[in-house]
Amino acid sequence: MPAVSFTHQAFNEVYSTPDQVRAHYHVLMDQLSRLGVQEFERRAGLSDLSFRNQGITFTVYGDAQGTERTIPFDMLPRIIQAQEWQVLEDGLKQRVKAINLFLQDLYGPQRILKDRKVPFELIHSSPNFRREMFGIQVPYGVYTHVVGSDLIRDEQGNYRVLEDNLRCPSGVSYVLANRTAMTRIFPRLFRQYRVRPVQHYTTALLELLHSLSPRHIEEPTIVVLTPGIYNSAYFEHAFLAQQMGVELVEGRDLLVSEGKVYMRTTHGRKQVDVIYRRIDDDFLDPAAFKPDSALGVPGLMQAVRAGNVALANAPGAGIADDKAVYPYVPEMIRYYLTEEPILDNVETFSGAKGQDLMYMLEHAQQLVFKPVGESGGYGMLIGPQASKQEVQDYLLKVKANPRNFIAQPTISLSVHPSYYKDSGTFEPCHIDLRPFILVGQETTIIPGGLTRVALKRGSLVVNSSQGGGSKDTWVLEDDELPLQHTMLEAPVAFPDPEDHLPDLALEAIRMAQEAQQQ
Amino acid sequence: MLSRLAENLFWMGRYVERAENTARLLDVNYHATLEAPKWFPVRWEPLLRITTSQESYFEHFPEVTPYSVPVWLAIHPSNSSSIRGCITAARENARSLRDQLPSEMWESINREYFKLGFANQELINEDGLHSYCITAREASHLFFGIAEGTLPRDEGWLYLQAGRTLERADSVLRMLAEYYQDIPTHASHQVEIQNHHWMAVLKSVSAYEAYRKEYQSRLDPARIAAFLLQSHTFPRSVLHNLQTLKHLLEELADITQHNSREISRKLGWLIAQLDYGVPMASLMSGDTHMLRGMADTLWKISDDMGRLYFLARYA
Q: How far is Cα B110 from Cα A49, in angstroms, rounded to an integer?
């Protein structure tokens, strides 16, 4: 068993004290300790190769090597207990419900602005507010159908929502690929733990997309719209299309004619009913948004307006995950649902508020700054890790455009042991969790989600574009502890093959062995 | 099926087949140089012409050497038709087809890409060319073998196979046109030179053993030409591939309801010429006009297919 190191500064998912493993991790740690370092590494090697050969990769932009990489896969799974998960599930459902009501309101009567719960100015200054969506009826009043909210655990072990991704959240393919890999590498562990399945995600997604079709026909045409093979998440786009059995299209495969969307096939045109788009709003339709974009489909918005095609997620959903709007989500929950939020936000200062801005400028060294429009961990300032000069330079940008920045206190994300090949030990790494939520007539969340790991030593950033990795996330069926030993572990009598082989075969084996020794 | 994907399947078939053909050509020629007697003039220019890359070659190298041509044809980054270039392009196409291809097919091309796509000049310094060529050949066999065993026999299969057979016929035609243009007639050692030469030609198409089974006689250039052009049974002969292509295109026309009469006419004419009209005597005297004309017609057929199935997207 590789040694484990411990840190006191953050909540530890596995250890309650340096030598006390939490109860639900006992069996796992015990099993791994029996494997031994060599066997553990052998299995890790197998999984690396399998990920690479399958091409389960993402593309790093602006990387000198300009390459696709596999996301480093950490074989130590994260385990979430049943009751703990139930709270998260309830909290997330509550959150996406409020967010969708907010979006419906914003693109309709704008009650929440008139009641001054959310500043009018904040919404109208956001590039993610799409006036083109004003007054459009979307099915079930749902704007964001596929949500990936990022959860972290603070020093006390409380889960908090760090941000909501409401446009094209990525990562679900890794959830499914990681699970497949784990069941192959550690089948016995799965028998011991009762882990809730995740593989039904693509079926649930397909049913959701199906339900959005404006034409009520037996087999509406559903497509996944990708920017193409150079996009960082292309693997995921192809994977989802394949698993759902629908066409993966690029903008150039589609055309709009008389308010309807068609795809170009070798048989001629075929009408498209639902588009699961993995292209940002800006690039969807050069006629409506960015005119120089070659990725999208001219006239697409016109088809959306005419109600002839459904987009998941709807354009304009991004206004609710604008980082400057995020601080208002708890308020939305109270406003639309008259409930208290189950999951807390991370305390957030917004450059758009005068008071907050003062605080941000004065306490920069203790805060994490994020530009509101960026994702993927780009453009951040981590105050405690930055030099005085870096902070000063960054604050110049903040002062120039305060609306564009938020700041949060540095929370030490919870840690989970991860294996490091160079040290041959498990070292604590910061992690977060991105559950995937499907919203249609009903809301479905697959148990668990993507646990991202900050594999760069000492790093707090878990994004794959910043060198982060991932691990399988197990949500347990119930909170009964797994059995330490199962029947399956009992040694099985295995006959010595040499007793049963004819002489010729024996001879061949001996010769092969000798040849190998030479 | 999306027009773009149909086109990608067609070209993927061509690229993988091309990598295989170039690998065979290169391997045979390289090893012919090793065993050749001093007086035997092993030449590398024909390979540049067969692969139609002589012009771009001279943009990068001042002269033809037994070192630079293999580098060019196997791995040079500026040669998009190199083995490496073809495998990279095929994998790129496969990547855009990931949701369409059986994952075993994608994984095989992806794996081979990792083996072949990153080789550098060390390859030749370290005597790795032979195993590189074998890997490329086997990559193609594995790829089409998996396709044979797992790809549904729908439109997609037809495009892939069309690309493969068209490329194969084309490459044999261009090779013959090159080698028959300039039949070696060196006075002394004539028989040895001839044998050496014609063995290399046959082996470049993996046809040496098949030819031997068919004709237990000396290596006769006219019979070799007839075999490679007209054999009904040898899977790399031009006729065999054109007939296969014809069936594939007829099925495609049926499925898509396109009017492909023009393509049928051109293909039919090529097949008729091969069956009845090859003027062997003039070929033996170095007149390769007909072969070149046929290769040109094949290019036109490829173009026609593009217009009919890939470009005519009913915009």
A: 12
Same domain as A179, residue A50: yes
Could you tell me which residues of chain A have a Cβ less than 8 Å from any Cβ in chain B? Answer: 52-55, 224, 228-229, 234-235, 238-239, 241-242, 247-250, 252-253, 255, 263-269
Greatest pairwise CA separation for chain A in angstroms: 91
Q: How far apart are CA A294 and CA A304, in angstroms?
A: 19
Does residue A202 lie in a domain region? no
- Supply the range of the domain harboring residue A104: 1-195+326-343+414-477
Question: pLDDT for B105-152, tens place per residue?
Answer: 999 999 999 889 888 888 877 788 989 999 999 999 999 999 999 999
Whether residue A39 is found in the same domain as residue A136:
yes
Question: What's the CATH number where A398 sits?
Answer: 3.30.1490.270
User: What is the pTM for the complete model shown?
Assistant: 0.81
In angstroms, the CA A110 to CA A99 distance is: 13
At A163, the amino acid letter reads E
Residues A155 and A82 in one domain: yes
Residues A403 and A426 in one domain: no
Residue A97 lies in a domain: yes
Whether A241 and A355 share a structural domain: no
CB-closest option in A53, A238, A265 to B111: A53
Query: Both A174 and A295 in a single domain?
Result: no
Asked if A248's CB is within 8 angstroms of B98's CB, the reply is yes
- Candidates A421, A414, A422, A425; CA nearest to A452 is A414
Give B311's contacts in chain A (Cβ within 8 Å): none
Of A229, A239, A263, the CB nearest to B96: A229
> Chain A residues with CB inside 8 Å of B113's CB?
none
Q: Are residues A127 and A50 in the same domain?
A: yes
B312 in contact with chain A, both atoms CB, cutoff 8 A: no
Give the mean pLDDT of A477-486: 68
Are the Cβ atoms of A266 and B1 closer than 8 angstroms? yes
Give the count of domains, chain A.
3
* Two tokens, residue B141: 């066999």
Taking the CA of residue B108 and the nearest CA in chain A, the distance in Å comes to: 8
What is the ipTM for the molecules in this complex? 0.71
How confident is the prediction for chain B on average, in pLDDT? 90
What pLDDT, in 10s, does the model give residues A116-129? 999 998 898 888 89
Query: Is A98 found in the same domain as A30?
Result: yes
Contacts of B9 (CB under 8 A, 6+ apart): B93, B97, B100, B156, B159, B160, B163
Q: How far is A28 from chain B (nearest CA, A)?
A: 32
